[in-house]
Amino acid sequence: MNEAKPHAVWPDLALDDRSRLDFMKSFRRFVTGELQPINREVYEKRVMPAYERAKGAPPANKHQVREAMTQDSFFAFYVSARRSGQELMWQYCLTPTERQIEALEAKARDLPDAGGSLRLDPDFEPPAYVASIDIHCMPGGYVTSRTPEDVTAGAIYDLGNDVYTMGHLGPLQDMFGRTTSAYVRSRWPDWRFDRILDMGCTIGLSTLPFCDAFPQAEVHGIDVGAPVLRYAHARAKGLRKAAHFSQQNAERTDFEDESFDLIVSHILLHETSGRAIRNIFRECLRLLKPGGIMLHVDMLSYAEMDAFDQFMFDNETFYNNEPFWASFRGLDQIVLAQEAGFRAEDLEIEHFSNALAQQVQNTGNAGRDRPPPKSGFQMLIGVRC
Amino acid sequence: LNAPRLSDSRRAAKGKRPEPHKDPVIDRLISMIVALTGEVAALRQRLDSVERVAERNGAFSQEEVEGFRPAPDEAARQEELRRTILENVFYLVTKEARDIEEGATSAAYQAVVRDIAADR
Q1: Res A372: pLDDT
Q2: So what's the pLDDT on residue A365?
Q3: How far apart are alpha carbons A231 and A238 in whole angstroms?
């Protein structure tokens, strides 16, 4: 194998594995780039007029759009194609990973220490919102350990995420972390960041950029899944980054009060629940030092979208095992953060694309980083007074 | 070789699958077609890789492959390969045509079942 691996625990991929993953990237580009937009045509030219004829008025909200669109054969085909691709993608990731799982476990164990750490909790109970169904159809989810030292979930997440985002996150899939860390640095240039926490870090894709952006800081990543954390720790060792990973629920951690300067999360909130989000915001408030910053990147709120786009994004909940996605995007995060104790004047929502544009400008890597197409992200920013 | 097993539940995600079509068979068919397309794409890529490796090592060139013109017996074999694929892929269509030609109906089929059952 002479292919350049992004890091030491990235699974070995045979020619057929690579070819299948290449195919899946192309297939996803085709489904999301070419099939998906046809749905709006179908809706405006065929579905909406028929609905209007039958009911006397066009669909007024995302629920009525869904009622109408789910009767349409093109939409049904699109759903099948997209869902089939999603499931097949994970099979493509599992096949090479299962073949070399013992070698990956050995590598994870034997890689030399890089100053970071891993702390797992054998009695940990994962919350229902990740344990009841496997989010985005990843078999076993984040929390299933197939063997005592298992890293399968981490490995297939790493492979699958690269395919799912069609390579848009860069070779180390760290676009989100690089962007948020650069944003924080440039916005608060005088703040001394001694301790940083990344909540819901999975395999640390967005955690490690903080080690680079803030070399003097102690960087922590927490997640509910043991196998993804084992992989995160091994991946960090391979990349020679000192990050501290521990198995904890972001709703209630064992860190001390006022012990962090910065708390971030990247596409975590929509995989939790309404109650969990409130708890997470409260926990951020507890953990932040006075003047400390909380920053959560997640999907754009539905407030800026028409009923059809809302309906299309809701498909993640209906067809891709994302139970909280649809209701999450209707929530007002500013209100929730206020309920958790943040002051209104210390809270804001910023478009992620602004931070990304700024980072691309600063680092001169235009063309390399762009957010995945057909989706938008926002950042909730809160400062503890 | 450790081929994955169909029955390995750890390869399937927890959570009820959606049923977007009135007939669930359609969804299964689309899923199979997507998977088959993936296999064809992987095969195509392997073949292309073989050709590139051969060219790099001087075994044979891309032009030689492109310029390949089969000798008569080779052409006959290739026609055979194409026919086999067509017959396999369009089996149902040809079967239907044959049924019509032979006047085969469900009623006729049921009659045979009855007759044989009665032949005790």
Answers
A1: 45
A2: 55
A3: 10
The β-bridge relationship of strands A377-383 and A288-299 is: antiparallel
Q: For residues A337 and A382, is the Cβ–Cβ distance under 8 A?
A: yes
Distance from CA of A20 to the nearest CA of B (A): 5
What was the pLDDT predicted at B2?
61
Q: How far is residue B89's CA from residue B33's CA, in Å, rounded to a whole number?
A: 12
What DSSP element (H or E) covers A246?
Answer: strand A243-247
Residue listed under structure tokens 């290449």: A22
Please provide residue A291's backbone torsions phi and psi, each rounded to the nearest 5 degrees: 90, -5
Q: Is B27 helix (H, G, I), strand (E, B) or coil?
A: helix
Provide the whole-model pTM.
Answer: 0.89
A-chain residues within 8 Å CB-CB of B13?
87, 90, 133-134, 137-141, 321
CA distance A30 to A15: 22
Is B2's CB within 8 Å of A98's CB?
yes
Assign A247 to helix, strand or coil.
Answer: strand
Q: Which two tokens stand for residue B89?
A: 């892929």
pLDDT greater than 70 at residue A17: yes
- Answer yes or no: do B30 and A84 touch at CB < 8 A: yes
Phi, psi of B47 (to 5 degrees): -60, -45
Pairing of strands A218-223, A195-199: parallel
- The edge-to-edge listing of strands for the beta sheet with A377-383 is A117-119, A243-247, A218-223, A195-199, A260-266, A288-299, A377-383, A347-351
- Separation in Å, CA of A139 to nearest CA in chain B: 4
